[in-house]
Amino acid sequence: MKTCRQQQEEFEEITLAPQAMRSACSAGRKRYEEPCTVRTCYQRDIDRIVHSKAFRRLKHKTQVFLQPEGDHYRTRMTHTIEVMRIARTLARSLRLNEDLAEAIAWGHDLGHTPFGHAGERALDEICPMGFTHNRQSLRVVDTLEKNGKGLNLCMEVRDGILNHTGPSDPHTLEGKIVRLSDRIAYISHDMDDAVRAGILKPSDIPKEIVEATGNNYSGRLNAAIVDVIETSRDSGDVNMSPDMFMIMERFRNFLFERVYRNPVAKGEEIKIKGILEKLYDHYMTNQNLLPADYLSLLEQNNADRIVCDYIAGMTDKYAIYVYDDLFIPEAWQVR
Question: In total, how many domains does the chain have?
Answer without folding.
Answer: 1
